[in-house]
Design goal:
With 264 residues, the protein is of the alpha+beta class. Helix content is 44%, strand content 17%. Residues 260-264 have low confidence and may be disordered.
């Protein structure tokens, strides 16, 4: 076995504990974990307390033993969904890229309904907008974010609009919850979301939501480019392209166009 160049003992102990607990459907006492893994009981106790605080383990109040929760399954499922969406979206994204020559982004919700970039095809033009895969940014000023927000169940959307602070990223950013709600209702009606210099001066974006086999939101796909190229003259063609390919991604994910979207 190749010797590790860099050591992270605390991380090794944490992973050893979680991997052992995942092998058996049972509760583990601190002493059992300590004995089986040759880790001091004090170290095991501190690690378990942190895992409990982050809801990765649940403590049995009777004997103080621990059991893994479903949070790891959630993380794994989230990653699996991300990979599936990227795979299904690959060819449609390339079609949009070829037709527009602009930067194409694929997004899902990140933390607290932020917009998380999970894939990108960079513009073929010398002057271009480039994002970063893994980047999260505010949804209220993003075409992809607004496309996704518009497809939230009503209760979730109400909660988002009530609890978020809408910072002005440019002088064109929507900062009023009431105005944003009106725009999101229009996005629901048309199936298209826009960002004209709301997130960044000089940048224009158009996006559409993507749905899965259950008829619920999976993510969004969008076109982003400088305003001097994303002109009113080319936008009709971009609209047709993004509508067609977003629908294509949804169909590849099993979405049935005649199935009504349930928003609660």
């Amino acid at each position: 076995m190749e010797e590790k160049k860099y050591k992270a003992p605390a991380a090794e102990k944490l992973l050893d504990i979680m991997e052992l607990m995942a092998t058996e459907d049972k509760d583990f006492a601190v002493t059992e974990l300590s004995n089986k893994l040759n880790i001091s009981a004090n170290s095991v106790f501190r690690i378990m307390k942190e895992l409990e605080l982050r809801h990765y383990v649940q403590k049995n109040p009777v004997d103080s033993s621990y059991r893994l929760t479903g949070k790891l399954y959630y993380l794994g499922s989230s990653l699996g969904n991300r990979i599936r969406l990227k795979n299904m979206a690959e060819l449609p994204m390339r079609a949009i890229h070829s037709a527009t020559r602009e930067t194409i982004l694929l997004t899902i919700f990140g933390s607290k309904y932020s917009t998380l970039v999970i894939d990108q095809l960079e513009s073929l033009e010398p002057i271009k907008f480039i994002s970063t895969v893994g980047l999260e940014y505010p949804s209220h000023s993003s075409a992809m974010g607004k496309a996704m927000l518009s497809s939230l169940p009503d209760e979730d959307l109400d909660r988002y609009l009530s609890n978020q602070a809408f910072a002005a990223l440019t002088d064109k950013t929507i900062t009023s919850p009431e105005v944003l709600r009106e725009e999101l209702m229009e996005v629901r009606r048309t199936g298209l979301a826009w960002d004209t210099e709301e997130s960044c001066l000089g940048l224009r974006c158009i996006a559409a939501p993507v749905f899965n086999a259950k008829g619920t939101l999976e993510g969004a796909v969008g076109i982003s480019g400088p305003v001097f190229r994303m002109t009113d003259a080319v936008i009709p063609g971009f609209v047709e392209t993004i509508r067609r390919e977003a629908s294509h991604i949804s169909e590849l994910l099993g979405y049935m166009p005649n199935k009504s979207l349930v928003r609660g």
